[in-house]
Amino acid sequence: MATILVTGGAGFIGSHTCVELLGAGHEIIVYDNFSNSKPEALERIKKISGKDFRFVEGDILDLDALDKVFDENKIDAVIHFAGLKAVGESVQKPVEYYHNNITGTLMLIKAMRAHDCKRIVFSSSATVYGVDNPVPYVETMPTHTSTNPYGYTKVMIEQILQDVYTADKDWSIVLLRYFNPIGAHKSGLLGEDPNGIPNNLFPYIQQVAVGKREFLGVFGNDYDTPDGTGVRDYIHVMDLANGHLCAVDYVLAHKGVEAVNLGTGKGSSVLDVLHAFEKACGKELPYKIMPRRAGDIAWCYADATKAKELFGWEARYGIDEMCEDGWRFIEQNPNGL
Ligand code: NAD
Ligand code: UD1
Are both 126 and 246 inside the same structural domain? Predict the structure, then answer.
């Protein structure tokens, strides 16, 4: 069993991944500055897993603090979730996004290198496929464009990690390209807890379901898709978490750099998700058709072959389970964590 440093481990995907890592018997050290999460998430991880773990409140921009973590612990690998992720905000605050995500990653790499820890799993995104590639997205497709600074941080960090490996073949790097993670832990104790008005579809639907928002605005019903609304590859956050377990095992046993999609390979439309959620919560949810959202594309789904070949991983849950678990979480935690 290994000791894993989890940056951003108090966040949505990080917290669910911590549960998986602890369940598999790994030791974890969570490093987070709570800029987009709450200490309560750590309590929930402990409650679900029945295990304790180290937590360091710190910023990935703080090289001294990172060095201290590596000085005090023998870390086998890092899962790097920490980053800012709101697409619209990144357009307004590009400098803050590039600094936090890119400089922060460079600091982390420096601390890792100084302590001879050269295994990292990075949270990338399907956003790196940009707007010109045809679906389904395959890892070999070109990824050098984006529509916003957030997306460019992912493109650039992938490039940086590639270059780190080119310079030093001792590194072991997996770039996980997530599709659309939704849902929650089965216990209803952990889930997504966004600040303010949700930008993303699923947390918005959750808030409509508990009466915190009046209706869902559906951004466009004139796309070239079966019902006219945008199609995405929604993946249960626990499937995603499990994919990290596989990626950690992989970096512990191999050298090199691999980009890997984590998606189901299936697409669902906005209305498919809304209706599945209605089924889960047992009530009709109001919605209104609105204009398209700038930067959106009609289709986005993964070719999920590589994850299966490389890790033996595939998604187990479908949209109904994602909605049932997402409903349980919001019903039990209408005001978040
Ligand atoms: P999140 O905001 O819930 O989690 C990110 C965590 O990182 C938060 O706990 C935040 O406090 C922490 N953090 C941010 N900047 C930090 C810093 N400078 N120092 C220390 N901690 C810092 O987001 P999430 O949805 O769990 O996403 C995790 C990662 O996955 C992010 O890198 C995100 O870009 C990526 N990703 C997310 C999605 C998605 O749909 N949620 C899709 C693709 C990729
Ligand atoms: C968005 C980001 C993507 C990021 C991902 C995870 C954009 C353009 N893309 O993906 O870079 O990696 O989040 O953070 O922001 N929708 C509605 N009403 C809503 C919200 C969304 O109809 O209130 C629709 C969207 O038009 C889209 C689908 O729901 O068709 C999914 O949207 P969302 O959850 O925001 O994810 P993405 O846009 O796929």
Answer: yes
pLDDT score at 325:
98
State the distance from the centre of ligand 1 to the C-alpha of 123, rounded, in angstroms: 8
Q: Given this model, what pLDDT does residue 145 score?
A: 86
Residue 102 is part of which domain span? 3-183+234-265+304-316
Query: Which are the catalytic amino acids?
Result: 150
Q: Are residues 157 and 212 in the same domain?
A: no
Q: Going by CA atoms, what residue is nearest to atom 5 of ligand 2?
A: 180
Tally of CA atoms within 13 A in the half-sphere of 133 that contains its CB? 21
* Pair 218, 168 in one domain: no
Query: Any alpha helices (H) in the chain, and if so which ranges?
Result: 12-23, 40-49, 63-72, 87-92, 94-97, 104-114, 149-167, 201-209, 237-253, 270-281, 305-311, 319-332
Q: What is the mean pLDDT of residues 311-328?
A: 98
- The single-letter code of the amino acid at 145 is T
pLDDT > 90: what percent of the chain? 99
pLDDT digits (tens, 9 = 90+) for 115-148: 999 999 999 999 999 999 999 999 999 998 899 9
How far does the centroid of ligand 2 lie from the alpha carbon of residue 231, in Å?
A: 10
Residues within 6 Å of ligand 1 by CB: 8, 10-14, 32-37, 59-61, 81-85, 100, 104, 123, 125, 178, 180-181
The full DSSP string for 3-47 is EEEEETTTSHHHHHHHHHHHHTT-EEEEEE--TT--THHHHHHHH
Residue 285 shares a structural domain with residue 312: no
Q: What is the pLDDT of residues 54-83, one digit of tens each?
A: 999 999 999 999 999 999 999 999 999 999
**For range 238-247, the mean pLDDT:** 98
**Which residue's alpha carbon is nearest to atom 19 within ligand 1?**
59
CATH number at residue 87: 3.40.50.720
**Residue 192 belongs to some domain of the structure:** no
Let me know whether 91 and 38 are in one domain.
Answer: yes
Atom from ligand 1 closest to the CA of residue 126: 43
- In terms of domains, do 308 and 296 share one? no
Same domain, 251 and 115: yes
Mean pLDDT of 257-267: 98
